[in-house]
Inverse folding.
């Protein structure tokens, strides 16, 4: 895989000086065109062996382009805050918005490669992580991002020679450390692991570009031209290229569905409700203070028909928790900042650290519900969202999160009664809007979307709990009981991580 990067590629000084002015001008033109259109971000990964010119290349891109619209993210070992959240959390937060360039010096590949070399990650675990990365990068590309992955290579002898040269130069000696020579001892292992990583993640959507790092001029021109060519080609594209992303949705001919079979007549008398409510709120309070919860986090998702009682259920859960321990995240239409990022970005930023809870009042399922029904996104977007959501939730669970998802369902008749009650009650009028009435006209379309959502995203790790919500007392107790049972079961796993059975 690295043979072509050990041929001694070089560019003479005269050629370099001749080519650079034109290259810089064209890079700036492409950058400004991209900034003006704000249709896609550029994500550049700079990886490779020590001494191969990663830092110099990043500095060069800053000098050749407008640095005000470039961000560089350097990642080392995760901080305590980062370690308390899913592995990909810190990379999601660092993604550049549309129109900008983000350079990753050290990326989502760095830690897996290091862990595999040191033996702290098994080959099977590495392959699982790489599969997650492939899906993540495919998502970025499907969202419109231009992803460029560079691996700078040096032969073992070239690396040793280059480290010594850097060490002799007073201006670059600081870049060579004891760790640099220690890593030189593991060169062969790095090549083995890196070769496997590059092979498995060299996809059509995000291929690797291997560049020989021996000659500075060759490396600089090569990277500059590749970045320019990729940006120019992407700017010429008219929108994103649609691709097949999921099998078609087929509805049962007998009209039975997970919603039609719910018994919405279930109810709970007031006295029994008050007894059960107190019981499960007390139990939830105990579980949230359990020392084992410090290794877990809790992610609650509330979706449901309009007026189904999401807010009332959330308040009953909040009453059982310490206000410093949880955050309620209301989800409305995305802001301009959020629209400039991949769809799931705004949910990643709200994920709780271990020992905390996040309660989502509506969630990432908006893409396959309201955005699908109202036509706010293209069909290929909501079709591929099912798999992306499943991947997202899988990563949460693997990191120790307890993900509990509720769909609150009421009948069309009960919804109409509650709408009229809200309209006629002074302090409830804020709860009813023209949009609620418009959504009601698409009742059947929303029912079909909900059924598809449950079928495609109710997984073993994060199943849906369907709540019969015509009776508010019954619904609130069912929700609280479910949270207690799921959390109690999760706390029995002592290490705080999901374990395959």
């Amino acid at each position: 895989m690295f043979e072509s990067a050990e041929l001694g590629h070089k560019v003479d000084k005269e050629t370099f000086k001749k080519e650079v002015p034109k290259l810089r001008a064209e890079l700036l033109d492409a950058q400004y065109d991209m900034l003006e259109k704000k249709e896609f971000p550029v994500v550049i990964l700079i990886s490779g062996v020590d001494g191969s010119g990663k830092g110099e290349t990043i500095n060069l891109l800053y000098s050749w382009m407008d640095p005000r619209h470039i961000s560089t993210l350097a990642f080392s070992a995760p901080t305590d805050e980062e370690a308390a959240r899913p592995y990909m959390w810190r990379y999601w937060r660092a993604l550049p918005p549309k129109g900008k360039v983000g350079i990753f010096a050290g990326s989502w590949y760095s830690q897996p490669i290091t862990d595999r070399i040191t033996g702290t990650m098994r080959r099977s675990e590495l392959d699982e992580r790489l599969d997650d990365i492939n899906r993540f990068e495919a998502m970025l590309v499907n969202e419109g991002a231009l992803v460029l992955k560079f691996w700078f290579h040096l032969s073992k002898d070239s690396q040793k020679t280059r480290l010594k040269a850097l060490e002799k130069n007073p201006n670059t000696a600081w870049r060579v450390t004891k760790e640099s020579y220690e890593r030189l001892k593991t060169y062969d292992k790095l090549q083995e692991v890196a070769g496997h990583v590059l092979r498995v993640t060299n996809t059509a959507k995000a291929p690797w570009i291997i560049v020989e790092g021996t000659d500075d001029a060759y490396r600089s021109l090569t990277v500059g031209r590749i970045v320019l060519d990729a940006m120019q080609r992407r700017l010429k594209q008219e929108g994103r290229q649609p691709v097949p992303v999921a099998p078609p949705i087929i509805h049962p001919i007998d009209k039975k569905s997970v919603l039609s079979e719910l018994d919405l007549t279930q109810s709970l008398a007031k006295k029994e409700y008050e007894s059960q409510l107190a019981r499960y709120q007390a139990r939830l309070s105990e579980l949230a203070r359990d020392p084992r919860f410090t290794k877990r986090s809790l992610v609650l998702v509330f979706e449901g028909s309009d007026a189904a009682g999401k807010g009332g259920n959330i308040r009953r859960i909040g009453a059982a928790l310490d206000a410093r321990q949880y955050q309620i995240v209301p989800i409305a239409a995305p802001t301009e900042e959020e629209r400039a990022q991949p769809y799931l970005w705004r949910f990643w930023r709200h994920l709780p650290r271990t020992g905390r809870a996040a309660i989502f009042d509506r969630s990432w399922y908006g893409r396959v519900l309201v955005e699908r029904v109202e036509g706010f996104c293209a069909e290929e977007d909501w079709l591929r969202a099912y798999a992306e959501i499943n991947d997202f939730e899988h990563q949460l669970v693997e990191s120790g999160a307890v993900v509990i998802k509720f769909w609150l369902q009421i009948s069309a008749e009960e919804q109409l009664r509650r709408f009229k009650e809200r309209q006629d009650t002074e302090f409830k009028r804020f709860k009813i809007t023209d949009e609620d009435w418009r959504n009601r006209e698409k009742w059947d379309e929303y029912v079909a979307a909900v059924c598809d959502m449950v079928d495609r995203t109710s997984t073993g790790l994060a199943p849906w709990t369907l709540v019969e919500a015509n009776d508010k007392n019954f619904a609130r107790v069912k929700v609280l009981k479910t949270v207690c049972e799921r959390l109690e079961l999760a706390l029995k796993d002592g290490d705080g991580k999901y374990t395959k059975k």
Observations:
- The first strand starts at residue 42 and ends at 48.
- The domain at 270-491 is CATH 3.40.50.300 (Rossmann fold).
- The chain is about 50% helix and 10% strand.
- The first helix runs from residue 13 to 37.
